[in-house]
UniProtKB/TrEMBL annotation:
The gene is mcsB. Belongs to the ATP:guanido phosphotransferase family. GO terms for molecular function: ATP binding; creatine kinase activity; protein arginine kinase activity. Its EC number is 2.7.14.1. PANTHER family: ARGININE KINASE 1-RELATED (PTHR11547:SF38), ARGININE OR CREATINE KINASE (PTHR11547). This is Protein-arginine kinase. It is an enzyme of class 2 (transferase). Keywords: Allosteric enzyme, ATP-binding, Kinase, Nucleotide-binding, Transferase. One of its GO terms (biological process) is phosphocreatine biosynthetic process. A motif (RDXXRA motif of the pArg binding pocket involved in allosteric regulation) lies at residues 338-343. Catalyzes the specific phosphorylation of arginine residues in a large number of proteins. Is part of the bacterial stress response system. Protein arginine phosphorylation has a physiologically important role and is involved in the regulation of many critical cellular processes, such as protein homeostasis, motility, competence, and stringent and stress responses, by regulating gene expression and protein activity. HAMAP family: Prot_Arg_kinase. Residues 24-255 form the Phosphagen kinase C-terminal domain.
Amino acid sequence: MSLEKFLNKAVSSWMSAEGPDSDIILSSRIRLARNLRNYKFPTLFSNDDAREIINKVNEILQAKVFQPYGEMELLQVDELKSLQKRVLVEKHLISPRLADDASHGAVLLSENEDISIMINEEDHVRIQCLFPGLQLTEALERANAIDDILEEKVNYAFDEDLGYLTSCPTNVGTGLRASVMVHLPALILTRQINRIIPAINQLGLVVRGIYGEGSEALGNIFQISNQITLGKSEEDIIGDLTSVVQQIIAQERSAREALVKTSNIQLEDRVYRSYGILANSRIIETKEAAECLSDVRLGIDAGYINHLSKNILNELMILTQPGFLQQYAGGPLRPVERDIKRASFIRERLKLEERDS
């Protein structure tokens, strides 16, 4: 498969589109956790229960009423190959937990992959909506619309005092997990991030790596999300997160301006050295590629580089992960083979970008 065809098939809409504050906010995600009444939670239910829940949710969401959001495709996780599951995790469309526990799970994906509904993960249903840039309110509206469609046909496990009941106590209440993916290279370079992350944690939010809990912050990309779902309304959760994120946006922009003002030539040199590595390397590891991509994206935002799209970081941070590289290659690769393929992939992608600019 040519790279161009592969990209057309592989890139989700939220990766290739721009949204509000997309120079810093790569994406917004809303996830609602729900469980069906009269069924045991996924940790205890039977295979028959699991199949019944998958069929019920799929039947409801495949109905004509759901069509405004596009066609939905049901994928049974136990029917997917290991590499296919890895790619879905890398695209943030399913969780590592769902990929690993294949016997009971499924996922419903919209055509442009901005909606992902995981079935029988930690909870019976997890509705996930992804938007480019800072669009938490818009993502919540879409997730709630899908939630309403389901709730018309099924009874949720709900308590008048506690709210929605979930497998994990931290999700009880609204069942809402809101998060944004942020690119913070200037706060890293100026080391301001060391005081900002503890301050964020004290506000009831959590800062994680690019793939959530336990993952590394590759390429200066972090996920910031709420920790508390009980005792707060959805609007309060979104409002609090948005307020903090807007402060971070202001601080990152201020740090970028300071770097351009005080260290312009050094910053420009860093950007072009990283671009040179990406454009010419014959072998490159994941971490080095992520760092260089972060520098190049900063260079695009700062105006040093004008012939590349801002979306290059969003795309290549995901498309150069191990699963994608092996899918593009057509089969499993050893680590060193992946590093060679990653370098080749990046060179080809940059050439495509330069051709189309």
